[in-house]
């Protein structure tokens, strides 16, 4: 699969039953629908979200992110309590997080 932000190859990272896709270049993470929710434990976030959060933040400027599954433009979500946290979502297929953002998102799941 190709990264929806920088078009580089993504590697599959196994997390128990679930396979997450991680970009080799920007370290963004793709989760198929429901996977992010099932993996939101803190240790898993630290395990898969290995990219540099500063790189992740710089990727927030990339617009028109297309779903890697269906090529539709994904919706961008902002978290008002965590200004660095922005992620893209396709209703049908899943979520894309820049490096560092999945960790923030996972932390906020339990607040
Ligand atoms: Zn990428
Ligand atoms: Zn899609």
Features:
globular; six-stranded antiparallel sheet; alpha+beta; 111 residues; binds zinc ion; 4 helices
Topology:
Layout: E1 10-15, E2 18-23, E3 29-32, H1 35-38, H2 42-48, H3 53-58, E4 75-79, E5 82-90, E6 94-97, H4 101-108
Antiparallel strand pairs: 1-2, 2-3, 3-6, 4-5, 5-6
One zinc ion binds at residues 67, 69-70, 72, 90, 92-93.
What does this structure look like?
There is one protein chain. The protein has 111 residues and is of the alpha+beta class. It has one domain (10-108). It is 23% helix and 31% strand. It has four helices and six strands; from the N terminus they run E-E-E-H-H-H-E-E-E-H. The chain has helices at residues 35-38, 42-48, 53-58, 101-108; strands spanning 10-15, 18-23, 29-32, 75-79, 82-90, 94-97. It has a six-stranded antiparallel β-sheet. It is globular. The mean pLDDT is 90. It binds zinc ion (2 copies). Residues 3, 5-6, 8, 23, 25-26, 28 line the site of one zinc ion.
Q: In short, what is this structure?
A:
The protein has helices at residues 35-38, 42-48, 53-58, 101-108, and strands spanning 10-15, 18-23, 29-32, 75-79, 82-90, 94-97.
